[in-house]
Amino acid sequence: MSTSREALAAIRARLEADDSGITIPLRWHGEPSDLLPDDPAPFGFVIFNNEGSGGGPIEFGGGRGQNRYRNNATVEAYVFVPAQSGLPLALDLAEAVASRLRSFRDDMVSCFSADVIPIGAGSSIAPPGLDSDVSNFVAALAEVRVTFDQIG
Fold it and tell me: SS3 letters for the chain?
């Protein structure tokens, strides 16, 4: 059983572990970050979208505050690389993120369907919370479906 904050912490720990194989810095939605440097370098921007339980409890515990709900969330990891590096590099780096979460399960979260989606020119997207211009980047998206249980 976990809260959305604990589920996000479990995902973040998995992605930022020393042995993760992810070689780019990750920026997290909702956290302050520096402006992008003048010399472009690859980076990731991660959004954790809690979508709620979407229905009633999956297990009744005998009253208010004792029922178990299964919450759904989506982890969206946008990977940006300088335009001259090309979309194949963005796809490879997004795959590194997706593979780190693919079929990951612990006592907090279960991850499913980690997909990599090519986006192309950074000017065609505007992830919420990313204030700097990304028009000189190309992007790919690692999208992961997550569930976590919560008592409520």
Answer: CCCHHHHHHHHHHHHHCCCCCCCCCEEECCCCCCCCCCCCCCEEEEEEEEEECCCCCCECCCCCCCCEEEEEEEEEEEEEEEHHHCHHHHHHHHHHHHHHHCCCECCCCEEEEEEEEEEEEHHHCCCCCCCCCCCCEEEEEEEEEEEEEEEC
The model carries a pTM of 0.85
CA atoms of 103 and 112, how far apart (whole Å): 6
Q: Is 113 left (phi over 0), alpha (psi -120 to 50) or beta?
A: left
- Tell me: pLDDT of 98 over 60: yes
The pLDDT tens digits for 21-74 are 899 999 999 888 777 777 889 999 999 998 876 665 555 566 655 566 778 899
Q: Is the dihedral of CA 18, 141, 76, 95 positive or negative?
A: negative
Residue recorded with tokens 């690859």? 42
Residue 147 vs residues 13, 32, 46, 121, 137: alpha-carbon distances, Å: 16, 26, 17, 31, 31
Cα separation of 50 and 126, whole Å? Answer: 19
